[in-house]
């Protein structure tokens, strides 16, 4: 892929601060873009105000800057994109690929995480609270992932998914798909925990006539209990002081041949070296990496 044709992105949600796992994902996305002199964008996915942490957006961007991960262009905030999401929703409705769903969680508890399609025949606007679901048409979605290799997903098993929530908020799958197309994203490098989101997004891309990016789903960093490092598992926020040793550990987690020759280097020197030595193939078919297994050099 030529430099001019590669556009990657890192898209955190401001429900908490960046931690070591999210740094590793951001770094992989950044290196994959810079290794071919491509563009690397940052998007703040602030679509769920009830779950957002005050000031998190600013602190996420500050962390990226402190760790030397400088992005191209302006940061895109999803809260500014509601009109575009509404247009996509209307397009799907006109194509009879989106429908209102009045099902409650209690009614679906025996079927989750799939959705049995109870409301597929619904038309018009119900007179009670409802979400809008995308009809996945029970199709098979195939994906040649750059890390996880060939994958096939059965949309009947995954079920029709929500694209507009009952509370009126646009759902993650729709917003991400619309913004990836609008920003011209060609390559998505993100955690394998989002692998099941990819067929849903491909389903939307096909229905909306969008391009499908290349995907690479990274191994996730896990804690001592084998859980993914996340806000929900109380992962420690990234330190803002002395970022160099943390960056070296993130590079090591991504299979870069980090050694003591980098000790004492600046972040700029580390990242320049990492771009030259980046090889995503070293992560192939790995699903998780225990944080305790990542060597420290300091």
From TrEMBL:
It comes from the Bacteria. Binds 1 zinc ion per subunit. Keywords: Aminoacyl-tRNA synthetase, ATP-binding, Ligase, Metal-binding, Nucleotide-binding, Protein biosynthesis, Zinc. A motif ('KMSKS' region) lies at residues 228-232. Its EC number is 6.1.1.-. ATP binds at residue 231. Transmembrane segments: none annotated. GO terms for molecular function: ligase activity. A motif ('HIGH' region) lies at residues 12-22. It holds the Pfam family tRNA-synt_1c. Its cofactor is Zn(2+). Residues 9-109, 125-232 form the Glutamyl/glutaminyl-tRNA synthetase class Ib catalytic domain. The keyword Glycoprotein does not apply. L-glutamate binds at residues 9-13, 45, 172, 190. Zn(2+) binds at residues 101, 103, 115, 119. Catalyzes the tRNA-independent activation of glutamate in presence of ATP and the subsequent transfer of glutamate onto a tRNA(Asp). Glutamate is transferred on the 2-amino-5-(4,5-dihydroxy-2-cyclopenten-1-yl) moiety of the queuosine in the wobble position of the QUC anticodon. NCBIfam families: PRK05710.1-3, queuosine_YadB. PANTHER family: GLUTAMATE--TRNA LIGASE (PTHR43311), GLUTAMYL-Q TRNA(ASP) SYNTHETASE (PTHR43311:SF1). Belongs to the class-I aminoacyl-tRNA synthetase family. GluQ subfamily. This is Glutamyl-Q tRNA(Asp) synthetase. It comes from Parendozoicomonas callyspongiae. The lineage of its organism: Bacteria, Pseudomonadati, Pseudomonadota, Gammaproteobacteria, Oceanospirillales.
């Amino acid at each position: 892929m030529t430099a001019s044709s590669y556009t990657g992105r890192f898209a955190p949600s401001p429900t908490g601060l960046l931690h070591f796992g999210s740094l590793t994902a951001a770094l992989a996305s950044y290196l994959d873009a810079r290794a071919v002199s491509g563009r690397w964008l940052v998007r703040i996915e602030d679509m769920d105000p009830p779950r957002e942490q005050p000031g998190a957006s600013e602190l996420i961007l500050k962390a990226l800057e402190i760790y030397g991960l400088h992005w191209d262009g302006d940061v895109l905030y999803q809260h500014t994109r509601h009109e575009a999401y509404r247009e996509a929703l209307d397009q799907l409705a006109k194509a009879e690929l989106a429908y209102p769903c009045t099902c409650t969680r209690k009614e679906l508890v025996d079927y989750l995480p799939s959705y049995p399609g109870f409301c597929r025949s619904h038309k018009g606007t119900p007179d009670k609270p409802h979400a809008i679901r995308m009809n996945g048409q029970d199709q098979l979605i195939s994906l040649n992932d750059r890390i996880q290799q060939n994958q096939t997903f059965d949309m009947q098993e995954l079920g029709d998914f929500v694209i507009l929530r009952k509370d009126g908020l646009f759902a993650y799958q729709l917003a991400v798909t619309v913004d990836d197309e609008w920003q011209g994203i060609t390559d998505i490098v993100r955690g394998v925990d989002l692998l099941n989101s990819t067929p849903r997004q491909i389903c939307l891309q096909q229905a909306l006539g969008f391009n499908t990016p290349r995907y690479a789903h990274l191994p996730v960093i896990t804690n001592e209990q084998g859980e993914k490092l996340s806000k929900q598992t109380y992962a420690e926020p990234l330190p803002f002081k002395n970022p160099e040793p943390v960056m070296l550990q993130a590079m090591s987690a991504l299979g870069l041949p980090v050694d003591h020759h980098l000790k004492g280097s600046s972040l700029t020197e580390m990242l320049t070296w990492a771009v030259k030595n980046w090889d995503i193939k070293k992560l192939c078919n790995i699903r998780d990496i225990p944080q305790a297994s990542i060597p420290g050099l300091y």
